[in-house]
Design goal:
The protein contains two helices and seven strands, in the order E-H-E-E-E-E-E-E-H. The chain is of the alpha+beta class. It has a single domain, classed as START domain (Alpha-D-Glucose-1,6-Bisphosphate, Chain A, domain 4). Strands 1-7-6-5-4-3-2 form a seven-stranded antiparallel β-sheet. The radius of gyration is 14 Å and the shape is globular. The termini are far apart.
């Protein structure tokens, strides 16, 4: 049996650079409290959504117009038995040009159906990427999704 990491994608008319810049404007599309810098290699930032979710990310790959990878170095998901399910996982944004459009492929390596948070977390990521980040890329303003 193969592991199915969560993935989703969007296709937009904007350039790879515009998509890359929107991804790195994390406060513009990921609702919650974000502390720290989010726009260069080795930056570390925290994300907090009330008392439900805390995570600390480190940007471990940063290729302008192409790819951004966050390593989750700490997590506390209070709604689940294993509160540290995200720790050690990677959040990947890959950008490619397809037929004069830009595709953003989002993957969360380690977010698999076998873990408790998969249902809630994959639904949240789908809304964040397909609605909020999509809106930030296409209109300049993220969309509140929860």
């Amino acid at each position: 049996m193969t592991t199915q990491n969560f993935t989703t994608a969007i296709l937009v008319n904007q350039t790879p650079t515009e998509v890359f810049n929107a991804i790195n404007n994390v406060r513009g599309w990921w609702q919650g409290e974000i502390e720290g810098s989010t726009d260069k290699l080795n930056d570390e930032f925290t994300y907090r959504m009330e008392s439900f979710h805390f995570s600390k990310q480190k940007i471990v790959e940063f290729i302008p117009g192409k790819k951004v990878v966050w390593l989750v170095i700490e997590s506390k998901l209070n709604s689940f038995k294993d509160k540290s399910e995200w720790t050690g996982s990677k959040i990947i944004f890959e950008i490619a040009e397809i037929n004069n459009k830009t595709q953003l492929r989002f993957s969360h390596l380690g977010l698999v159906p076998q873990i408790e948070c998969y249902g809630n977390c994959s639904n949240a990521w789908t809304a964040l990427i397909q609605e909020s980040l999509f809106s930030l890329v296409t209109t300049g303003k993220g969309k509140k999704v929860f």
